[in-house]
Amino acid sequence: MQTRSQARDVHGMDTLQEMQVNGASQAPPREQSSPHEQAPLNEEVMPPHKQVSPPPHVEPPPLGVPPQEAMIQLTQEALLALIRDASTRAAAQAIAQFAAQHPVDLPPPSPRRSQELSSTPRRRSRGRKSPFSPAILAEALPVGVKVSNLPEYDGTGDPQEHLDKFYAKIDWYDLSDTAYCKVFRTTLSKRTLAWFNQLPGGTISSLEQLTQRFLHHFFMNKRVPKTAAFLFTIRQKENEPLRDYMQRFVEAVHEVPHVNHELLASIMQQNLSPGRFKESITGKPPSTMEDLLM
């Protein structure tokens, strides 16, 4: 038999259990915190310059794509977008930093100055002064004028012959002498250009001065004009046809300036090999070269 005290204890425990059950059933449900709920005041807030920018917007996957593949696709696209965004920001910061450290504020060169720079010898870029005077350096070819097909001199031919060919070409153009100085320099090559570049700076002020120095330096290559005595060496060879000999003699005459035609006819008659043609003109020698060739 239970004692009175034991009965009270059992009754009290039943009452306590009943109250706990009723309290649990009547307790109001706890509200779930929203993901957008404001952070507690005691939580550390990152400053604006250290906050991470939100990932760029990514379009949802098309319909019919399995959830797992869609999640992988969204993750890859978001990662690539973040990489591109970070690369763009890094490049912009690097460019801005370089521009700040290397300021450039130079005015563009004038058209005349650009022409001077293009026509100035390369040696000026190495700190040496051009042989041309400032007046020649400041001269520029007229707009649209291009001088081409000029003879080239490499230092082995007759300098006077090169000048004659040069003048024959530039007669087609109406340019100043200072402009022709620059044009003449373009006809020099190899060691002739090296000779020009070693001239003292600013010592060439005219085309005449340039051509005189050119002829003086390369005078050893100048051909000595042949005289009439040279023509006596142009004799008809044995068994050489008369036509071939006459052609060879005429070519030799072109190398001898200012020769009297009567003298030419007499020299040619003496240089002929014995034969019927020489015998036919022995009694009445031709008075001119034209009569002899006829």
TrEMBL record:
Residues 1-67, 101-131 are annotated as: Disordered. Pfam families: Retrotrans_gag. Residues 53-65 have a biased composition (Pro residues). Coiled coil: none annotated. It comes from the Eukaryota. Residues 17-36 have a biased composition (Polar residues). Residues 182-262 form the Retrotransposon gag domain. Residues 1-12 have a biased composition (Basic and acidic residues). This is Retrotransposon gag domain-containing protein.
